[in-house]
TrEMBL record:
GO cellular component term of the entry, any: RNA polymerase III complex
Protein name as annotated: RPC5 polymerase
Native organism taxonomy: Eukaryota, Metazoa, Chordata, Craniata, Vertebrata
Biological processes annotated in GO: tRNA transcription by RNA polymerase III
Superkingdom, natural source: Eukaryota
Domain DNA-directed RNA polymerase III subunit RPC5 C-terminal: 444-689
Residue stretches of biased makeup (Basic and acidic residues): 146-155
One Pfam family matching this protein: RPC5
Ranges for region Disordered: 146-169
UniProt cross-references to PANTHER family, sorted A to Z: DNA-DIRECTED RNA POLYMERASE III SUBUNIT RPC5, DNA-DIRECTED RNA POLYMERASES III 80 KDA POLYPEPTIDE RNA POLYMERASE III SUBUNIT 5
Length: 691
């Protein structure tokens, strides 16, 4: 009461509700204007609106005489958009960017709480707003400039193409017959973003006439912001009882839900999610995330959630794979649905996805071709299955995306046992459907399957290592004899020492067992790309012995020379790939296994008579640095040396050249009139490995 006495009422103002502009009044929010932009009566050139979408486009002039306006920039933009010719379709007829287009977007979906107020002579007149639109600059002229640039590039590339090239450019097409559209498929198509965009584009623009601030028509329309009659009959909305007024300020929650804008079906906030029952929360989370550890699931459900109830609910919508929960296939593919790629019914998709999940219960790695061969599904469907729960690894396959959850397996052995029984039933069904062979049922590597590594004891690993050594002893003996023969031929001084060398079989230590469970068969005799052979060529503290440097240089020079005589132009990336293939073909203990750096390889390339060609690749290229370094053999001693040098000079100035330019340049420099076939032969011989 004391606070109310300190804040007395100074004035009472009558409030009136104006209805003349009801459902016609919009509020435009303009961006902060630059110094060269003015919003006066002269600047508005045109305006148009789409009433259903409440979308507005305004075209406004730019003050090109303003000292802050950059005229050279405006001319450059106009030239990029319209080119050199000007006609009716030109965006900037004055060859200068002298106007700017603004497009609107809705600032608020529910504007029933907003009104425009006018105060006059002690009266406040309110007019409800029909929409609040934010105007933002439109940069469609940049898209037009990019389109013209692509057209010019396409014209330049296609200008020198011949009839023969057009006939060779034949592409294989796949014909698919569409299935009858179901009601659910039609509803999904109608609710798709592409369909909504098409519907919005079909609505025609309604062109408007703009009246300035001081125009007589504007003065006339402005009078409609005032209530036309001050009688009580027109303002009954403002005469309410206290309870009715509070009801208007705070309507029931049901009405609020009805007034909410429709959100996409796959978007749900965490606040809305936690209002649903626990089972629905878990189903929605698993359907969106697809693979989740149990600890993460509990954290998303909020504090105070009963873990036992979560376990009971998650088993209804997910299966346990390597200690993590993976959403069930029938949740992702409900009944009476089909594949968006191939049209296969949901039942077949569920069987194929269950096979992938079952494979991950047996091993951490799955091969895509094996899944496609067993399930007989299209590659797109198989890829979707694998992307749900795994990550692709180059030259290895698909690896399960989450690590083995040992904590959950230890805390809930009863759940793990129940899930194993479920998987046994699923395996039995898959065997009948797919006629699985023994090789499909047995993991390829028992040591590397999804079970935790600690389940294999140290003694078992020692026994496995001993068995592996005994099994491969014969092969090791052959490799040693081969290495001994090479050492005899390469080093005459070692002839008397070699017969005294004997293989010593040392017992495997029990204290330090050899771990071959996770890596056997993967290295193929290589460790970090090098053969695991011991010899006198091993580096000492990172440096080679003095007598080995010359031998390494000779071997490297021989490789580089022979490679560039076969392929005259190579990138550094391709050269390194060929060098690695060369290393893989060499016997163990070779001198090149001592370690060759990139710098040594590049220096040797330059020493063998090659030159680096500085090709001006575009800045936005996605190529790696090694792919941007191009080396070429300058003189090979054949009839194409002069032609090749001319070509290298051409490509050192531009990375993309038309064939007729190459033909003219070759004719001028070499003094020969080359036809198209001869130019193609020169290009093929010179750049067969690069272009």
């Amino acid at each position: 009461m004391a606070n109310e006495e300190d804040d007395p009422i100074i004035q009472e103002i009558d409030v009136f509700l104006a209805r003349s502009l009801l459902e016609k009044l919009y509020l435009f929010q303009y961006p902060i204007r630059p110094a060269s932009m003015t919003y006066d009566d002269v600047t508005h050139l045109s305006a148009k609106i789409k009433p259903k979408q409440q979308k507005v486009e305004l075209e406004m002039a730019i003050d090109t005489l303003n000292p802050n306006y950059c005229r050279s920039k405006g001319e450059q933009i106009a030239l990029n958009v319209d080119g050199t010719c000007t006609d009716e379709t030109s965006t900037y007829s004055s060859k200068l960017m002298d106007k700017q287009t603004f497009c609107s977007s809705q600032a608020a979906s529910n504007v029933s709480r907003y009104a425009a107020a006018v105060y006059k002579k002690g009266e406040l007149h309110l007019t409800p707003l029909h929409g609040i639109l934010q105007l933002r600059p439109s940069f469609t002229y940049l898209d037009k400039a990019d389109a013209k640039h692509r057209e010019r590039e396409a014209a330049n590339e296609g200008g020198d193409s011949s009839q023969d090239e057009a006939e060779d450019d034949v592409k294989q097409i796949t014909v698919r017959f569409s299935r009858p559209e179901t009601e659910q498929a039609r509803q999904r198509r109608v609710q798709s973003y592409e369909f909504l965009q098409k519907r919005q584009a079909e609505e025609h623009w309604v062109h408007l006439h703009y009246y300035g601030l001081k125009d007589s028509r504007s003065e006339h329309e402005r009078q409609y912001l005032f209530s036309q009659g001050h009688g009580l009959a027109e303002n009954t909305e403002l005469i309410k009882s206290p309870s009715e007024y509070l009801m208007m300020l705070m309507p029931p929650s049901v009405e609020e839900e009805n007034d909410k804008p429709m959100a996409p079906s796959n978007v749900l906030s965490m606040a809305q999610l936690r209002t649903l029952p626990l089972a629905d929360q878990i189903k929605i989370l698993m359907k969106n995330v697809k693979v989740m550890p149990f600890a993460n699931l509990l954290s998303l459900l909020g504090p105070g959630t009963d873990a036992t109830a979560v376990l009971r609910c998650v088993q209804q919508v997910a299966l346990l794979v390597q200690g993590n929960w993976v959403v069930k296939s029938d949740v992702l593919y409900p009944k009476d649905t089909s594949s968006p790629h191939s049209g296969v019914p949901a039942e077949v998709l569920c069987r194929g996805r269950d096979f992938v999940m079952w494979k991950f219960t047996q091993d951490r790695w799955v091969v895509r071709k094996e899944v496609a061969a067993v399930t007989k599904l299209c590659p797109e469907d198989v890829k979707d299955f694998l992307e749900h729960m795994s990550v692709a690894r180059i030259n290895k396959g698909w690896e399960f995306m989450l690590p083995y959850d040992e904590d959950f397996v230890k805390k809930h052995p009863d759940i793990v046992q129940r899930q194993q029984m479920l998987w046994m039933g699923i395996q039995a069904k898959l065997e009948k459907v797919y006629n699985l062979l023994k090789e499909h049922l047995t993991p390829k590597k028992q040591e590397a399957q999804s079970a935790h590594p600690l389940l294999v004891s140290g003694e078992q690993r020692v026994n496995m290592a001993k068995a592996k050594v005994k099994q491969n002893y014969g092969q090791l003996e052959k490799e040693f004899q081969k290495q001994k023969a090479e050492m005899k031929s390469n080093d005459a001084s070692a002839k008397t020492d070699v017969p005294n060398i004997h293989i010593k079989e040392e017992p495997v230590s029990v204290e330090e067992p050899m771990d071959t469970s996770a890596h056997e068969g993967l290295n193929n005799g290589l460790v970090n790309g090098l053969h695991t052979a011991q010899g006198s060529m091993d580096p000492v503290n990172g440096h080679l012995p003095g007598g080995c440097i010359d031998r390494v240089a000779q071997e490297l020079k021989a490789f580089v020379s022979s490679t560039f005589k076969k392929q005259f132009v190579l990138t550094l990336s391709e050269l390194k790939r060929l060098f690695n293939l060369h290393l893989a073909s060499l016997p163990p203990g070779h001198t090149l296994f001592s370690g060759i750096s990139d710098k040594m390889l590049q220096d040797m390339v330059l020493d063998t008579g090659c030159k680096q060609i500085l090709v001006p690749f575009p800045p936005q290229t996605a190529a790696s640095p090694d792919e941007l370094k191009v080396y070429a053999l300058w003189e090979a001693g054949d009839t194409y040396d002069q032609h090749r040098q001319v070509l290298l000079e051409i490509f050192s100035k531009n990375y993309r050249v038309r064939r007729n330019v190459i033909q003219n340049q070759l004719s001028q420099e070499c003094g020969e009139d080359l036809n198209k076939q001869e130019v193609d032969r020169v290009l093929k011989v010179s750049f067969c490995s690069l272009w």
